[in-house]
Amino acid sequence: MNGGVRAAAAMGDLGMIVAVTAGLGLIVAGLGVWAMWSLRTRSIGVMLTVVMVVSIAATLAGVVAITLKMIIEGSVRDFVLSVVAVGGLVGLGVAFVLARRVVGESRRLVAAVRHLPFSAPRGLPAELQTIANTLEEAYERERALEEARRELVAWVSHDLRTPLAGMRAMAEALEDGVVSDPATVARYHGQIKHEVERLSVMVDDLFELSRIHAGALRLSRARIGLADLVADTVAGAEPLARAKGVRLAAEAAEAVPVEADAGALGRALGNLVVNAIRHTPSERIVVLRTAVESGMACLSVSDCCGGIPEDDLPRVFEVAFRGESARTPTRDGGAGLGLAIAQGIVEAHDGMIGVVNDGPGCRFEIRLPLVR
User: Is residue 349 part of a domain?
Assistant: First the structure.
């Protein structure tokens, strides 16, 4: 019977220990949450210190309360309290050191961001290092885009200035009567019309590219067959190919359905075909193919341009890149933005576009999700 009484007393003491510890823990936690909310705009070091103080305080409060009220008395109690006090001080010291390091590394990252060109500092804590690396990558992308924009403005300005100067000279000659014979007048009128049409194409390309970069390209998707798209593209490009002396051929597989905007995707494919025709010598061939590869709809344009230098292949679709074999502007061309526009349209369709050297020329490939 005495054993039962002792067991009941022990259970009662245990319950009281749990109740006191839980109550003190809840009080300390509530104060900690209030402190964190009040200091939410302060340094992360301050918040880390609050977290450490709350954790240590909750533990110390429970230990001290139970030690003083229930379990240990005399010199043993003083010894336990001393050990607990030392442990609390050590915990606070560790929290202080940790907070100082986090704050110091954060300030180092801020200083690096303010200093341009930005280079991610090394040796940061894992999360801060990830942020620093991400910022460095974003800065490199932004710098590359800014450089591309400057180059784009420079060479588009040049391409606009040249035909405008020619048209102004011809218009002044016609206006001043310097040219009077009908044949020359007709030739000047035809040349002015040709340059106006070329400038119109250039402006349209610039507008389309700006919409793509701004994310304002709106697609009206529907189920279409690539064979029909290829047939329409060949029919549209046939006059240019005939004038250049280039043959067009289509090898379209049946039943290759995709979910796409027929007009936008047709423009992307047309840009690839026109680019291939312009860089293919007379009496050679440009081939359009459709197929299903690895669960994707594949659309390719192969030409006989002689190939693109390997170093230039990764840059063919860049806005401001004008490689010798990739996008050298010609008098019958537009702004030289056809490949960049094609890439934007394909990526808007959740597809991929690429180019490889193949045989006597290169092969541009468009891959799109296949409709199942």
Answer: yes
**Is there a single domain that holds both residue 84 and residue 28?**
yes
**80 contact partners, CB below 8 Å, separation of at least 6:** 63, 67, 72
How many whole angstroms separate alpha carbon 222 and alpha carbon 176?
55
The kind and range of the H/E element at 233 are helix 226-244
Distance CA 330, CA 268 (A): 19
Question: In this predicted structure, what is the pLDDT of residue 124?
Answer: 76
How many domains are there within the chain?
3
Radius of gyration, CA atoms only, the chain: 37
Helix (H/G/I), strand (E/B), else coil: 364: strand
Q: Is 296 left (phi over 0), alpha (psi -120 to 50) or beta?
A: beta
Alpha-carbon distance 37 to 31, whole Å?
A: 10
Give dist(CA 150, CA 57) in Å, integer: 59
> Which has the closest alpha carbon to 72: 154, 17, 139, 133?
17
Q: 74-114 vs 126-176: helix axis angle to the nearest 10?
A: 10
User: Phi first, then psi: what are they for 321, rounded to 5°?
Assistant: -90, 130
User: What whole-number distance in Å separates Cα of residue 217 and Cα of residue 270?
Assistant: 18
Give the domain extent around 60. 2-114
pLDDT value, residue 327:
39
The Cα–Cα gap between 250 and 306 comes to 20
What pLDDT does residue 51 have?
72
What is the predicted pLDDT for the residue at 184? 85
**pTM over the 0.85 mark:** no
